[in-house]
């Protein structure tokens, strides 16, 4: 079985500061890990994903995430926050169970001027 | 050129009514999904269809009935609406191996309010 825990339902950073959104997962099989972003009143968009290979993955808009198996984590970072980054971010995990996606409860990112 | 579309965008109705939400994708994907996002933003899968066949049916009341007339459409019909059904419902689609590659494309959502 798979599950996801996102630490911090709300994160607030200043413009230009580091963005760090935490995600820990539980999986009985090698996981596939994803970050999605949801802007207000919109659907979810894929930011980045880890399936196999390099554990540091780069996504759109300068976001990165690193898969750390020993820590069962997949934290999302961006070196410098922009006002346009304000949104809800969801971490998700799937295993080898076809079509099964498990989302975390989301982290709302607020960016202060 | 919308990839995944849903109608209506907003739906306000009384308890006990029956309503439908429509979803269409023009991406040629084989698999479609319905998700429910509650007031706390928790997103949970409800159903998944692959080529018109039901793949996943999570613990959802049988008042909810998905229908897939063809692989480009997955509609959600809800009978005897209850207050707890108020949520945002998202439709999504993916290629055959979409889960493995994370390529789920989401619609804009339908905000259902039951009064």
Question: What labels would you give this structure?
Answer:
heterodimer; A: about 110 residues; mainly beta; four-stranded antiparallel sheet; B: about 120 residues; seven-stranded mixed sheet; 1 helix; about 55% strand; globular
Question: Can you give a write-up of this model?
Answer:
The complex is a heterodimer of chains A (113) and B (115). With 113 residues, chain A is mainly β. Chain A is 0% helix and 53% strand. Chain A has strands spanning 2-5, 10-14, 19-21, 24-27, 32-38, 44-50, 56-58, 64-68, 73-78, 87-94, 102-103, 107-112. In chain A, strands 2, 5, 6, 10, 11 and 12 form a six-stranded mixed sheet that branches. Chain A is globular and about 40 Å long. The relative contact order of chain A is 0.34. Chain B is mainly β and 115 residues long. In chain B, strands 2, 4, 5, 6, 9, 10 and 11 form a seven-stranded mixed sheet that branches. In chain B, strands 1-3-8-7 form a four-stranded antiparallel sheet, with no helix packed on it. Chain B is globular and about 35 Å long. Chain B starts with a strand and ends with a strand.
Overall mean confidence score, pLDDT of chain A? 90
CA distance, first residue to last residue of chain B: 34 Å
Q: Bin the strand percentage of chain A.
A: over 45%
Order of helices and strands of chain A: EEEEEEEEEEEE
User: Could you state the oligomeric state of the chains shown?
Assistant: heterodimer
| Distance, first to last CA of chain A | 41 Å
Taken from the alpha-carbon principal axes, the silhouette of chain A is globular
